[in-house]
Amino acid sequence: MVANKKNVLVIGADSFHTKQLEKLAHKKKYQIDTSLGIEELKEAALKDKKEWKDYLQSIEQKVKKGAYDGVMAYWDFPSTLLRSYFVDKYSFPGASFLSTLKCEHKYWSRKLQKNLIAEYTPEFELIDLENTESIGAKKLSYPYWLKPIKSLSSQLAFKINNPEEEKNIIALLRKKKNPLANVFSFFVNQVNLPKDIPTDTSRYFLAEECLTGNQFTVEGYVFNGKVHGYAIFDNINDKSDCSFIGYEYPSQLTSDIKQSMIDISEKIMLGVGYNNAPFNIEFFYDQKTKRLVVLEINPRVSQSHTLPIQYVDNISNLEISCELALGQKPDELVRKGQFKYSGKFFIRAYSDGVVAGMPSSSTLSKLRKKFPGLKIKFPIDLGMKLSDLKEQDSYSFELALLYLGDKTHQALLDQYKEIKKHLNFQIVR
Question: Do β-strands 7-10 and 31-33 pair in parallel, antiparallel, or remain unpaired?
Answer without folding.
Answer: parallel
